[in-house]
């Protein structure tokens, strides 16, 4: 099982807006059956961590290419356009999760 986390560095003052857009994009993927439940969170205001950074994470059974033939991604163009106006940088992280065998 894998944990995937996408980190978005956003413009100062846009964290709540970016979090809402990221959540709405994630929800479309959830509703389309493309992702498990997604968590969206940030750091840097009232908690320690990098300022102006919004995270989105979810769990997957296996890693698969989003460009695979049978994959049909939901339309998120309208939300992605709005998000692109506040994002300065982004990256994705992959973690393999420990699973007890007993």
């Amino acid at each position: 099982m894998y944990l995937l986390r996408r980190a978005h560095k956003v413009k100062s003052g846009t964290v709540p807006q970016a979090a809402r857009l990221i959540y709405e994009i994630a929800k479309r993927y959830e509703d389309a059956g493309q992702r498990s439940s997604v968590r969206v969170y940030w750091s840097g205001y009232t908690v320690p961590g990098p300022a102006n950074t919004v995270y989105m994470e979810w769990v997957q059974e296996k890693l698969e290419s989003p460009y695979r033939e049978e994959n049909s991604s939901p339309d998120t163009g309208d939300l992605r356009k709005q998000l692109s106006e506040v994002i300065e940088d982004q990256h994705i992280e992959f973690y393999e999760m420990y699973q007890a065998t007993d």
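The first helix runs from residue 15 to 31. The two ends are 16 Å apart (CA to CA).
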